[in-house]
Amino acid sequence: MTETSKFTAKTWILILSLVLLALTLRPSMASIGPLLPLMQPELHLSFTQASLLTMLPVLAMGLGIFFAHQLAIWFGSYQVVFWASIAIAAATAQRYWAVGALDLTLSAIVAGLGIAMVQAVVPGVIKQKFGTKAPLVMGWYISAIIAGAALTASLAAFWADWAQSWRVALSGWVVLSVVALLLWFSQKNAIENLPVVQSPQKPLGFANYGRAWTLAMFFGLVTCAFTCVLAWLPAYYVEQGWSEQKSGLLLGLLLCMEVVSGFISPWLASRKADRRAVLLVLLVLMATGFSGLVIAPALGLVWASLLGLGIGGLFPLSLIVSMDHQHQPASAASLTAFVQGIGYTLAAFSPLIAGFIRDFSQSFSISWLLLAAIAVLLMAMATRFNPAFYSTKFQ
């Protein structure tokens, strides 16, 4: 489509395909937190060990993104996403037969690599296909990623209770992957016909620029917040006396608010090139939410809502701001690959650190306060994202 055209029926089908793909990118991780109280007694997992089930796929996502960029050049965007989606589906289905922590860990790594491939390639596809509307479609795509996590977190414990098996609740999301694969297959001609445009700057080449590292750190610290609440919020509220189902629904509420913010925040930010005002408001919500978890945990619905609104808007905006720095689709894809690769690698260790702190201190409170402090640090970083100077940052 051209930059001035409206969405056609074909482009709406492509958008639906991208949204369905996005929905498959978080169930492998989001299902762990609500089901952890059921899994720990059988598998004898400490909180530190359990954190690996969230940490390893995020780490695989970070490292795999760099390989995905080159694979997309060699084989094309369609093929990379297709086979990556098969890997996600296979890893999800394998969990039905899991008999120990090692099986779950291996499936987490395979799923993480598949997720990395999809997340590295799709932003470039969106930039190429949607032109000036790319930030809007990118917001929908990222919101759908969060929606997949929300759906999983809300239903996982109920599904396990109905099936009397946490394995069914972990593996059943393969159905979603199969549906997404079928619709993506219908887009084969549209995606394969996209020109393979190599960026003059490969992802790791951006390591020479300070602004690229700032963007990567910003995205990584936002993702630290996302992965920590995904991994530990249900466990925290089970310790507060809530049931597994109610704790899972609380995480589901947080993620639903992330979806809402993921749709609204990019729209608000798109009204002008300077995104800083929206970023700062979202960071205030994030800092307030994490502080509230410690100060008044009984008000979990309030803090979960604030955290969802804050993190949900920051997640897409951090990538949109990265894309703003490059006008060419190939260069934008390379930069976002670098930002995601470094960011996810950094964020991968946050659940492990939080789990270690929980084992050592018998409380998640320290972790929540550290994340509130990180929100304040991010405020200082966000003030530097003045679009008037973007063109000077990569010279």
UniProtKB/TrEMBL annotation:
One of its GO terms (molecular function) is transmembrane transporter activity. Residues 14-390 form the Major facilitator superfamily (MFS) profile domain. It comes from the Bacteria. The chain crosses the membrane at residues 46-68, 80-98, 104-126, 138-160, 166-185, 212-237, 249-270, 277-296, 302-323, 335-357, 363-383. The keyword Transmembrane helix applies. Keywords: Membrane, Transmembrane, Transmembrane helix. InterPro entries: MFS (IPR011701), MFS_Cyanate_Porter (IPR052524), MFS_dom (IPR020846), MFS_trans_sf (IPR036259). This is CynX/NimT family MFS transporter.
